């Protein structure tokens, strides 16, 4: 699927006396149907000569996004979008991974050696998404220091097993 880039205005700062915008805070999101990536930034503007001072109340997101892209120029806009595309590509086919080879993932010591570990509920964790699963694990004092190499399904089973052993 093709990547879609979405430029959005997060906030603006303006003078209350004349409504002139002097700072624009923006986000750029890239989505390809499977993964997403994003960036945040701010642009400082000079006094409006070329913008012909559009009244603050008449500004639209399209106008302001145009100001940002004009400020950067087509080349820099392309570089920002290319960097986000690289992040998506890296998510699809990682070329790097964190971890410590001596910190192998282990099942918590409370599990009897000859016991089948109950991983029921893993599907509920999987539906949360990876970031939420990791936050849940940390809130419940589940050691996740060696899970970076696990896919989401294995991570969900690991958390379910740790909860069911608790």
Radius of gyration: 23 Å
Q: Report the order of strands and helices.
A: EEEHHHH
Extract low-pLDDT stretches.
109-115
Number of structural domains: 2
Biggest sheet, spatial arrangement of strands: 1-2-3
Strand content: 15-25%
Number of helices: 4
What is the end-to-end distance? Answer: 42 Å
Based on secondary structure, the structural category is alpha+beta
Main β-sheet, in a few words? Answer: 3 strands, antiparallel
What's the total number of strands? 3
Silhouette: elongated
Q: State the helicity in percent bands.
A: 25-40%
Average pLDDT taken over every residue: 82
Explain how this protein is built:
This protein is an alpha+beta fold. The protein folds into 2 domains: 4-92, no CATH class; 99-166, no CATH class. It is built from 4 helices and 3 strands. The protein has helices spanning 61-92, 122-126, 130-139, 152-165, and strands at 4-14, 21-31, 36-44. A 3-stranded antiparallel sheet has the order 1-2-3. The longest helix has 32 residues, at 61-92. Residues 109-115 have low confidence and may be disordered.
């Amino acid at each position: 699927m093709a990547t879609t880039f979405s430029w959005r205005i997060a906030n603006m700062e303006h003078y209350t006396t004349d409504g002139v915008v002097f700072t624009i805070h923006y986000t750029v999101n890239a989505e390809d149907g499977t993964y997403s990536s994003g960036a945040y930034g701010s642009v400082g503007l000079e006094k409006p000569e070329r913008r012909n001072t559009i009244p603050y109340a008449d500004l639209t997101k399209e106008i302001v996004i145009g100001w940002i892209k004009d400020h950067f120029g087509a080349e820099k806009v392309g570089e920002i979008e290319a960097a986000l595309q690289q992040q998506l590509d890296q998510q699809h086919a990682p070329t790097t991974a964190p971890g410590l080879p001596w910190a192998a993932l282990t099942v918590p010591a409370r599990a009897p050696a000859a016991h089948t570990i109950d991983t029921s509920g893993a599907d509920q964790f999987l539906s949360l998404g990876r970031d939420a699963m990791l936050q849940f694990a940390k809130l419940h004092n589940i050691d996740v220091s060696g899970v970076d190499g696990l896919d989401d399904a294995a991570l969900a089973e690991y958390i379910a097993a740790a909860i069911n052993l608790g």
